[in-house]
Amino acid sequence: MSDDEIIAQVRKPNSDDNNSESGEGEVIETPKISKFNAFECFAKGLMWLEQQTDSDSTELMLLKQLRERAAKRRQSSLRQSTLPFKPM
Fold first, then answer.
1. What is the DSSP string of 11-75?
2. Domain spans, the chain
3. Please, which of 18, 22, 39, 43 could form a disulfide with 70 given CB 3.0 to 4.6 Å?
4. pLDDT of 28
């Protein structure tokens, strides 16, 4: 391999760590996670972390902050943004 080929290989993102080439411009889409599912995952992760004997307060605080952020976003999507108009 030449130097340019080595640099190109290193800069190329690792998808499967194999030598098969995929088409350039190919976009792999990941499914979007809902606000409700994000909140549930953070809540379960927090419960799991609290059960661990080797967790520290920094980890707990970070996970609590992420859970609260997910809760706020979930709550904002549940609110009705405008009142429906009913003619009299």
1. HS--SSSSS----TT---PPPPPPHHHHHHHHHHHHHHHHH-TT--HHHHHHHHHHHHHHHHHHH
2. 34-81
3. 39
4. 82
